[in-house]
UniProtKB/TrEMBL annotation:
Name of one Pfam family that matches: DUF938
Protein name in the entry: DUF938 domain-containing protein
InterPro entries: DUF938, SAM-dependent_MTases_sf
Highest taxon above the source species: Bacteria
Amino acid sequence: MTNKPFSQASENNKKPILNLLTSLFASNKHVLEIGSGTGQHAVFFAEHLTHLTWQTSDLPINHSGINQWLDESALVNIEKPIIVDLNENWPIPNKALPIDALFTANTLHIISWPLVVKFFEGIAHNLSEGAHICIYGPFKYKGEFTSESNESFDLWLKERDKNSGIRNIEDILILANSANLNLINDHVMPANNQLLCFRKQTSNK
């Protein structure tokens, strides 16, 4: 078997994120992770949040690596990765266990802005009232970076893909509002990141 994929960033930030998810997801049962990456977060969080069923998802190219982490863990409360295409309606594999929480880490600055919009539209269409949504990553505030390293990271992202880049929190909050999400907290995290925590409210439409 080939070596499992490994992300040092995931290894570094998993405990600070878990410290917050422990209370934020205390009343939830079924979490959908958008962009599971290596699978490290999924295994770590499922291991410590045993009351949750953790549904992984990513592009097919990453499924093999995620499955290596899942198979080695042998955890019963974590599900094999599904494909979530942000341009399409998200597949809900277990209709008897509705998704009542969503987690994503380091995704919104990687995908294009139209897909960020689709991400929030997907939340509006697929998550029910009361669902908790946690988004981890770097953001700008009033157009300003929170650190010089984030500014350098943004330049690197745009050189790699002109459609990517660190997003303005104000733009994210507009999209969140359109999906009936109420910001519960904006936690400052290590390495100049944030954990945005939302709760889905009743639609006014």
